[in-house]
Each structure stands twice: as structure tokens, then as C-alpha cells.
Recover the amino acids of this structure.
């Protein structure tokens, strides 16, 4: 038997990277998985990779109408939610002097507003004892140059987890933050202007990690599975680092 047999999971931002790896792992453990992404072609490819237990619903979590369509799709299939992995997010480099209103709005609309309403709109469908997982970032506590807006948005995510764990305790719903360090995903590559700069960025990131390398999406997915499953039944409100020791040493 799989760890998530008979359960329904929703994973946002599952076109690639940690979201796709986690959705694939949840399905392999027996869950019926609903995934979201903004690009239809990539979403279709992700559904095909995950297999028959996956349903794709295209949408942007910063668009509340798209979130409504996601949860309508879940409800129309007679499903309630046991695992919600609010993973979608993103950011870009910008120093304090360079920050524009557009940069701020885009980052906070996705990472904060989108996160908030992803969870709020799921509440009517969440089963008692459900697991809610929020994707944070080691950047929230590092003070990295030119990453201040992104870091602040992820600090808000950590704060959300604490508050929501308290607010949802009467329903035995657990809320935890999964905080990855440098994970080798398309999102990391997208921070660079070209492949050469991407290689340099990855080399720099790996050099900062005590384990001497970047993480793999499957390693973050293993941590997500732990938080999603009954293996973490007495854990709520925590921040689980998957960072190779980056923020620990």
C-alpha cells in the first residue's frame, strides 16, 4: 500500500521542478492528484508524465477566478482534499535601487496573495486532518543581495504557516512550510540571462551549500511526501529545511 492510498492531493505550480516531482511522488504513493500551471503545453506534458491519477487545470494562482476553476474541477469530480501543496511561486533579482512597482506587484501577487487565496479557497474542500504544505525559501532568512522582494514574500509565507496552523487546529488540519535551498530546477535557470550565467549561478549556489552541491527536485519531493503523509501526523507549524545545511551551519 502507498502512503497516500485513496487520498486526493492538489499541487500548484506543478509544471516542473519541485511541484512536478512532488505530484509524481504523491501519485506513485496512491493519491489522485490535481495539478496547476500557467502553460498548457507544459501542464499537459506533466499530466502525461504523472500518469492516469493526474488531472491538469491550467491557471495562475494570482488570478482568483483561476483558483475558483481549480477547486470547481476538484468538486465536480466528487473529490475532497487531503493534501494541499501550495507550491507555485517565483521571483527575480532586483536591488533596492532597481525595484519597480511592477516587480513588487508580480512577486507579491504570486507568492503572497496567490498563496493566501490558494489556501483560503480550498477550505470548504479540505478534509479534517488534511495536510497543507507551503513552499518557503532559504532566501527569507539569508539577506541575499538583489533578492529582497522575493525574500520578504517568502518570509510572509512562513508567517502564514504559523498563523494558519493555529487557526485550523480545530479541524486537525496541519500546516507546515517546506523550505528548499538551492534545488536544480528550471526556476533557478530562469534567474539567469543565458546558459553561461546559469552555470555560473549554479556553481556559486553549490559552493555555499555544506553538502557541496545543489539539491534535486526528488529530494524536496521526499520531504513533501513526509509532510503530506501520516508519517508527520504530530507535526504542524514547522519549517522543514531541505537545503543541504545552507541555513543550518
Amino acid at each position: 500500500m502507498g502512503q497516500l492510498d485513496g487520498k486526493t492531493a492538489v499541487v500548484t505550480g506543478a509544471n516542473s521542478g519541485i511541484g512536478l516531482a512532488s505530484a509524481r511522488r504523491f501519485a506513485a504513493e496512491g493519491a489522485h492528484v490535481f495539478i496547476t500551471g500557467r502553460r498548457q503545453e507544459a501542464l499537459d506534458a506533466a499530466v502525461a508524465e504523472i500518469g492516469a491519477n493526474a488531472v491538469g487545470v491550467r491557471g495562475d494562482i494570482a488570478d482568483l477566478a483561476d483558483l475558483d476553476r481549480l477547486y470547481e474541477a476538484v468538486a465536480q469530480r466528487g473529490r475532497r482534499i487531503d493534501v494541499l501543496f501550495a507550491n507555485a511561486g517565483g521571483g527575480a533579482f532586483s536591488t533596492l535601487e532597481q525595484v519597480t512597482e511592477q516587480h513588487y506587484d508580480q512577486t507579491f501577487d504570486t507568492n503572497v496573495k496567490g498563496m493566501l487565496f490558494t489556501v483560503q479557497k480550498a477550505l470548504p474542500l479540505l478534509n479534517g486532518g488534511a495536510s497543507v504544505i507551503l513552499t518557503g525559501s532559504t532566501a527569507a532568512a539569508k539577506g541575499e543581495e538583489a533578492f529582497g522582494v522575493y525574500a520578504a514574500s517568502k518570509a510572509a509565507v512562513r508567517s502564514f504557516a504559523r498563523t494558519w496552523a493555529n487557526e485550523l487546529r480545530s479541524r486537525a488540519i496541519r500546516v507546515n512550510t517546506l523550505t528548499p535551498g538551492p534545488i536544480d530546477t528550471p526556476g533557478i535557470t530562469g534567474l539567469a540571462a543565458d546558459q553561461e550565467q546559469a552555470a555560473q549561478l549554479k556553481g556559486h549556489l553549490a559552493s555555499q551549500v555544506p553538502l557541496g552541491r545543489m539539491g534535486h527536485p526528488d529530494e524536496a519531493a521526499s520531504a513533501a511526501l513526509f509532510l503530506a503523509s501520516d508519517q508527520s501526523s504530530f507535526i504542524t507549524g514547522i519549517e522543514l529545511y531541505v537545503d543541504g545545511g545552507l541555513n543550518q551551519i
Notes: The chain has one domain: 8-183+216-237.
